[in-house]
Automatic annotation (TrEMBL):
Keyword Methyltransferase (UniProt): no
Domain Major facilitator superfamily (MFS) profile: 63-566
Residue numbers spanned by region Disordered: 1-45
Transmembrane helix in keyword set: yes
Compartments, record wording: Membrane
Species in which this protein is naturally found: Clonostachys solani
Lineage of origin: Eukaryota, Fungi, Dikarya, Ascomycota, Pezizomycotina
Gene3D superfamilies named among the record's database cross-references: MFS general substrate transporter like domains (1.20.1250.20)
Topological category with respect to the lipid bilayer: Multi-pass membrane protein
Official protein name in the record: Major facilitator superfamily (MFS) profile domain-containing protein
Length: 580
């Protein structure tokens, strides 16, 4: 294994601590070129200069490939439950808990972002990355062996935590060991890998669910992939030391983490998820339990704000939220918003396009999943295109504007879809939506890290903005899934109940049919009534694209608040900072 990468210090630099204040440091000699670290990023570049990557050749190819595979398995598990839900109902007969199988993963991911980012700032990047993989694989094994739905849900939450650690590790690697001009391409590659995994999720899950291997191998497959990649993770991934405070011991920094903030924020998000999961299908909206959960959620969010603002049980340096220059930087705030809302246009099509084709065309699980390919292909192509285009046109606001327009057009078109819409039209609409989303959804990671490094020269700040981008994306992913799920359950149930009024079906039977987890009800209907029932469901699905329309418009509006500047200023006197 390689020695830990150390920072090059071949000239006098200005570094910043967590508060953003400068402190001068002078180096007397350069360090070996085989080394780099988050600390080594704590350098302010000469005007217009860029930093170069230090790892090349087959070693870099192996490193990048192993990281992309990590992004792929993260994407795979994000959508793996989409097409195994009927099998889970058959196995456990717990329809009321089914939503948690889908939301448990993003909930675990979201709640672990800030703690994970804090731990990445303490421990070596390689060890944190491998530890995250171990957690993810252990949770996958638990899901595969789950004897009950409750155990499966617990496994999904822990898998989300491990998956988030993997994703943060990949972001940090590509943010810290690539040059400014190539970073966009490599981070865009993450989006492509994630997208491939996301489209394979329903296909792989559906294939296993309908095979003798059963749905359990939809989770066990992660263990096989990890075993194949293990040599690359262990022997080829470079060690990268975290930047920041080196005066305190690792144990002291670990104890000093903002555990109170993490606990309060996690409690707030869990209660928020519970109320949007149970209210409606399980509890009436005016039920005492629903009201109590809303109250608890509000109290926990208020307590989190108070604890962070008044620094209760923490300090400025250690608190959960990043410093002001990272958190409320005007450009960064706009980037956070655009990254967040674009997540809607990934998960709404991923979850509801297959469901649409299952109802409208009677597709099998596999057929419905394959119909996602046009959307995913253009999502991935848009991601790669925007990453490659960024250093060429240099005006990132223009890419966001184009993406917002395409997203809005595609979303409006998807809103018009009904059970009689020809598949080729649906493909075309989804291509517009996928291309626009691809332009936007990962672009913020590159721009945010480049802008922050230009501003502060701090590798630690680069990690912070990457974490905030991830928080924005995963947070809105969870929220859009919860809101979309509520819309689907309530609208489809209401529409279908009208069609089936007076026929003697129970609420549970109608809800299961509306969710696509039971075909017995539809099979019992006559042709005319079955057509009405399908129209009722597809009408509900089309309404969910209101969320996508709002997201596309939000990106267009947010573009107005971006500075109309060049991302990479013209280099003066050919000054280029290299770490070689």
């Amino acid at each position: 294994m390689e020695p830990p990468l150390e920072p090059p210090k071949s000239f006098q630099t200005a570094s910043r601590d967590g508060s953003g204040e400068k402190s001068d440091t002078t180096s007397k000699s350069p360090v070996d070129s085989s080394s780099l670290s988050g600390e080594g990023m704590d350098e302010v570049l000469p005007d217009g200069a860029t930093r170069e990557r230090t790892i090349h050749g087959w070693k870099w190819a192996a490193t990048a490939a192993s990281l992309y595979i990590g992004a792929l398995i993260y994407g795979l598990d994000s959508t793996i439950v989409v097409d195994i839900q009927p099998a889970l109902i058959d196995q456990f007969d717990e329809f009321e808990s089914l939503t948690w199988a889908g939301t448990g993963f993003p909930l675990g991911s979201f709640c672990s972002i800030l703690p994970g980012a804090a731990l990445y700032a303490i421990f070596d990047l390689k060890y944190m990355f491998i530890g995250s993989i171990i957690l993810f694989e252990a949770a996958s094994a638990l899901c595969g062996a789950a004897p009950t739905m409750d155990v499966l849900i617990v496994g999904r939450v822990f898998a989300g935590m491990g998956g988030n650690g993997i994703f943060l590790g990949i972001l940090n690697y590509f943010s810290l060991i690539t040059s400014d001009t190539e970073r966009g391409r490599y981070i865009s590659g993450m989006g492509v890998s994630w997208g491939i995994g996301a489209v394979l999720g329903p296909v792989v899950g559906g294939a296993f669910a309908t095979s003798p291997a059963t749905w359990r191998w939809a989770f066990y497959i992660n263990l096989v992939i990890a075993a194949i990649c293990a040599p690359a993770y262990i022997f080829w991934l470079p060690k990268v030391k975290p930047g920041g405070d080196h005066q305190r011991s690792t144990l002291t920094k670990l104890v000093s983490l903002d555990w109170a903030g993490f606990i309060l924020a996690t409690g707030a998000m869990v209660s928020f998820t519970m109320v949007l999961t149970f209210a409606g299908p399980t509890w009436p909206w005016n039920d005492k339990r629903t009201i109590a959960l809303f109250v608890v959620t509000g109290i926990l969010f208020v307590l989190t704000f108070v604890q962070q603002y008044f620094l209760l049980f923490t300090t400025v340096a250690d608190r959960m939220v990043p410093p002001k220059h990272v958190l409320i930087n005007p450009t960064q705030l706009v980037l956070y918003v655009m990254t967040a809302v674009s997540a809607t246009n990934i998960y709404v099509p991923l979850f509801y396009l297959p469901l649409y084709f299952s109802f409208a065309r009677g597709d099998s699980t596999m057929q419905a999943a394959v119909r996602l390919l046009p959307f995913i292909a253009f999502l991935a192509s848009g991601t790669m295109f925007s990453g490659s285009l960024l250093p060429k046109i240099n005006y990132y606001w223009a890419i966001y504007l184009a993406g917002g327009i395409l997203m809005t057009a595609g979303s409006v078109a998807m809103y018009t879809v009904n059970s009689d819409t020809l598949p080729q039209y649906v493909y075309g609409y989804s291509i517009l939506l996928g291309a626009g989303t691809g332009f936007v959804f990962n672009l913020g990671f590159s721009i945010a890290s480049i802008k922050m490094f230009q501003q502060t020269g701090s590798g630690l700040d680069v990690q912070r903005v990457s974490s905030m981008q991830n928080l924005s994306q995963l947070g809105w992913q969870l929220i859009s899934l919860l809101i979309g799920g509520q819309m689907m359950q309530e609208l489809s149930y209401r529409n279908l109940a009208k069609v089936l009024d007076g026929m003697g079906f129970s609420e549970k039977e109608i809800r299961k049919a509306a969710a696509g987890t039971s075909s017995q009800l539809f099979d019992s209907l006559g042709a005319s009534l079955q057509k009405e029932a399908i129209n009722a469901i597809t009408d509900a699905i089309s309404k969910i694209y209101i969320l996508s329309i709002i997201s596309g418009v939000a990106v267009i509006v947010a573009t107005l608040f971006l500075p109309k500047e060049k991302l990479f200023p013209k280099v003066k006197n050919s000054d280029t900072l290299t770490t070689v």
